[in-house]
Structure formats: structure tokens, C-alpha cells
Amino acid sequence: MDEKINEFRKLSWEIRNCKKCRLWKTRTHALPGEGSLSSKLMIIAQAPGYTEDREGRMFVGPSGKKLDRLFEKASISRDEIFMTNLVKCVLPHNRKPRPDEIETCARYLDRELDLVNPTIVATLGYFPARYIFKKFGIEDKLDFPKVCGKVFSVGFKKIVPLGHPAALLYHSSLEEKMVENYKTLRKLLDSV
Ligand code: SF4
User: Fold this and answer.
1) Ligand 1 in contact with 16 (CB < 6 A)?
2) How many domains is the chain built from?
3) Most CB atoms within 10 A, among 32, 104, 117, 151?
4) What is the CATH number of the domain that holds 155?
């Protein structure tokens, strides 16, 4: 475990100091993943939001509050999971990540996946799902509405594409469905 912690510290330092794509110029903090290194569940969002960029922590802004509510309703604790982003720096004006930014930054995500080796990988939103689907050879063309909330098995791993909790800021009617999705994660966690 000491070796794992050291490797994680090294990786986090590299991310915090990274200037490998244009996004370093507009960020305040690059955000490495955070949480339990022995977690069975990794949650992958798209990129830090405005508040997360300012404070240098995962999911501390408005969508983080929505996520905490979903966790609470599904009896999931932040302490038992590992959370990270596909792209580690904030995207200016909330724009979509560009292909070269994903390609460059996802190398860090790949290393986090190797290090934590979670059995369950839940993605939040389209871009993380597309990356993970390609990585694990599930589908080349992602029909996101069709796959959202379903569980895909790849060897011993379970891949679960989910909507982003930020959607609840504008569409509160989605909450019931999202709570069900997080209860599915709870059941998967209890079964591995
Ligand atoms: S987005 Fe990723 S690759 Fe680009 S500067 Fe930030 S940490 Fe580095």
C-alpha cells in the first residue's frame, strides 16, 4: 500500500503542475482524483467546474451538492469511493473538451485506473462515457441516452454510464431516476 500511496502522490503532483495542453493557462488548480485508493468504485466526471477550479477540490460546487444528495439517498459515502475527471483542468466558459485535450489528459486517468483498479467504473456525462467505452471496447459509437443507467460487464469490471448531477440544477424531475441509478451503484458495491 505504501508503494501505491507514493505512486499516487507522484501522479497527483504531476497533474497539479501539468502544462501539457492549453488548459493550464486558464485554470487555477488542476485537480487530481481523490478518495480511497482501494475503492471498488471509481466515479469519472468530465472536468472540474468553476468552484472546483477555485478551491482545488472535487465536487465542492453546486453540482457537488447535488451529487452528495444522490450519495446520501443511495447510502454511498465519499470515503468509500474514488472520484476523478477525464480532463483535470476547468474548461473555459463550460465548453466541451477538445479531442486533443482528452487525448493528452486521459493518460492521467489511465494511470489512476491502473493504480486504483476499481471493479465498478461509473462515468458522469457523455465524454467520460465515450472515453471509457472506447477504452474497454464496449461500443465505438456511443448512443448516450440509450446506454445511460445500464450496467456493462467487461471481464470482472462493471461499467455504468450515468448522467451528470449538474443536470439536476436545471431539471429536478430527473432526480428520482438518478437516485435509482445510484442505488444500483450501491447494490453493485455490496456485491463485489
Ligand atoms: S487538462 Fe490535463 S493535460 Fe491539460 S494542462 Fe490540465 S492536467 Fe495537463
Assistant:
1) no
2) 1
3) 32
4) 3.40.470.10
